[in-house]
Design goal:
This protein has ten helices and no strands. By secondary structure, it is mainly alpha-helical. It folds into two domains: 48 residues, Arc Repressor Mutant, subunit A (Orthogonal Bundle); 142 residues, Tetracycline Repressor, domain 2 (Orthogonal Bundle). The protein is elongated, with a radius of gyration of 18 Å. The N and C termini lie far apart (61 Å).
Length: 192
């Protein structure tokens, strides 16, 4: 009887499960393969390298953000509140593996691995772009550039805060996020 094919989500889930115990740095693809009872070739069919697992994990978070954007209530909210709700959906999707998510980000920004650093910056840019699109931001030209720059700062400060304060009450975190979205010129762009 032919063994069922292992899917990309199953591989990612197994990697996250193992990384919860050993940490992202100590996770090896051969450990994931052994855990699933498959060969490395089965993993290579879906992920060419360990970093692609990181991308897949953050792609899931982007999908959660985009799913939240489909909710009927979102467009009734102010622009800043839409951004808040969307980033909360993104973070909530990562919360089951919060510590590993932080380790993944550090891995992508690791000194000496310029290729990972560039991909890390592209990941941040991609997520901020989806965040803006999902919030239906329509700013153009210089306004769009300024908004993207300011939103990237708010995103980074919020994600780092979320990672560093895992025990923080969600209401307190939302207050922190609102402060990030209200700071200086961003408040004017969002018409808070």
């Amino acid at each position: 009887m032919k063994k069922p094919t292992t899917t990309a989500p199953q591989i990612l889930n197994a990697a996250l499960h193992l990384a919860d115990t050993c940490g992202w740095e100590r996770l090896h693809l051969f450990d994931v393969a052994a855990h699933l009872g498959i060969g490395l070739d089965a993993i290579a069919q879906h992920y060419r390298e360990k970093d692609e697992l990181v991308e897949a994990w953050f792609d899931r978070a982007d999908q959660a953000l985009l799913l939240r954007a489909k909710a009927d209530d979102l467009m009734t909210l102010s622009p800043a509140k839409r951004l808040e709700e969307l980033l909360i959906a993104w973070l909530d999707s990562l919360s089951s593996h919060r510590a590993v998510s932080g380790q993944m980000l550090l891995y992508k920004l690791e000194p000496g691995h310029v290729h990972l650093q560039v991909l890390g910056l592209l990941r941040i840019s991609r997520t901020v772009q989806w965040w803006r699109e999902a919030a239906r931001r329509e700013t153009l030209h210089l306004g769009r550039i300024a908004e993207e720059t300011l939103l990237t700062g708010a995103y980074l400060r919020s994600v780092v805060h979320w990672l560093r304060h895992p025990e923080e009450d969600p209401v307190e975190f939302r207050a922190f996020l609102r402060r990030q979205l209200r700071c200086g010129p961003l408040c004017l762009l969002l018409r808070y």
